[in-house]
Amino acid sequence: MERKNVWSLYDSSQLAELGRINERYKSCLDAGKTERECVELSIRMAQEAGYRDLQDVMAKGETLKSGDKVYAVCMSKMLALFRIGEEPISAGMNILGAHIDSPRIDVKQNPLYENEEFAYLDTHYYGGIKKYQWVAQPLALHGVVVKKDGTVTKVSIGEEEGDPVFVITDLLIHLAQEQMEKKASKVIEGEKLDLLIGNRPAEKVLDETSEPDQSSDNGGSGKKSDQVKANVLRLLKEKYDMDEEDFTSAELEIVPAGKARDCGLDRSMIISYGQDDRVCAFTSLFAMLDVTDAKRTGCCLLVDKEEIGSVGATGMHSKFFENTVAELIALTEGESELKVRRALANSRMLSSDVSAAYDPMFAEAFEKRSSAFFANGITFNKFTGSRGKSGSNDANAEYIAALRKAMDDAGVAYQFAELGRVDLGGGGTIAYIMANYGMEVIDSGVAVLNMHAPYEVTSKADVYEAVKGYRAFLKI
């Protein structure tokens, strides 16, 4: 295909719509830095667009008809939105599926300790990261603390103007001769990613006769009552009514602090944390809320745990989606296991996931003819996987031809690409999981620079074309 930078093709009205979409997208990135936050935000937007909770519909004994809009939630970290079409659901759906988890650093369940009058949170990284990229920069803490009585307290520290931030320290260059000789994978190791959260002791200081605490296994020689740690616990108690044991039932995620920003003098790009895969999740959501009627039932599926293999109750391997489709069939066509199977097999899906953008600074990692380029439109990946297409879904040519026609008819800019050089590596998405039902699936999304880094970069033009492409798909 001929490469074409689409910026020069836009008229004033298209540029205005592009601007509105990208400002909305940046706001969503700021409000949704965790899976829970993404689900909460998406539900709020869906409700404003007339979507109802499927559980409420079922509780009232109602049925569903063409035009009805419902959503279903799994454990506050997975969401499915459905707009019932004119055709029976068993005839198949048009599904936009994206993941809302991103690489990050998680707080362990027994994390708080003091070492030489520094208070730290012990951590475990999540997903594929270059660990050295996460040190020496401002970090924020997001998540929830759930107490034994079921009370859920939201935590967000480091995003507001007056908030403190946190940091993972690095070794100063003056003493780093040995460190600099290590492989990049070893420069910062997992157990060195602990979060520095305090240095000020509590008001009550131990006397000099206090016995050393021999129980610490974190390298500290702290006393029976570590005073910096005690001060941190006091602050947590005051702000969140949180005791140390409450860490065991908390989900706390460490992410870069700060908002999504325009990138480049021309403001043509966006730099932000979490654009893999929220750039596809939010553009899919925008398209879903924009399309109000279509022959086939439309679905926007936002899932968790893709970065660690789509496992668990909120990952794509779970039965949540299949079970929800069964409930929809029961409310529209009557209970039928066969119709559920037909609905899944007859469906079409865009596995809305990002692709690697060609980076001329690292040209050796790419095969240029088969790369995705910034501002060339939405990217389709016929297959993903690694090396010999291992772990891949490989889309049918007939399906690709139908998508090409749909995109062309809707005036959507698009390109076809692979992740990188054949023998260099690779990656996977949720596409192969959904293809197991026999449905037509292909990966499609936005090209990203710095993928899996704390700050990733996308093209505003590609964000715009993704929304257009997802709209067109929901209507075919």
Question: Could you walk me through the main structural features you see in this protein, from its secondary elements to its overall organization?
Answer:
This protein is α/β, with parallel strands linked by helices. It contains twelve helices and 22 strands. It has helices at 12-31, 35-48, 54-59, 177-180, 184-187, 227-240, 275-290, 320-332, 337-345, 397-409, 431-435, 460-475; strands at residues 52-53, 69-74, 78-83, 93-99, 104-115, 118-126, 139-146, 152-157, 195-198, 250-256, 261-263, 269-272, 297-303, 348-352, 355-356, 378-381, 385-386, 414-416, 426-427, 440-445, 447-448, 456-459. The strands form five sheets. A nine-stranded mixed beta sheet has the order 1-2-3-13-4-14-20-16-18, sandwiched between helices. Strands 8-7-10-5-6-9 form a six-stranded antiparallel beta sheet. A hairpin with a 5-residue loop joins strand 7 (139-146) and strand 8 (152-157). Helix 1 (12-31) crosses helix 12. It is globular, with a radius of gyration of 24 Å. The chain starts with 11 loop residues before the first helix and ends with a helix. The relative contact order is 0.18. Mean pLDDT is 93; it is low at 205-210 and 214-222.
Low-confidence stretches: 205-210, 214-222
What's the oligomerization state?
single chain
How many strand units? 22
> What is the CA–CA distance across the termini?
23 Å
Radius of gyration: 24 Å
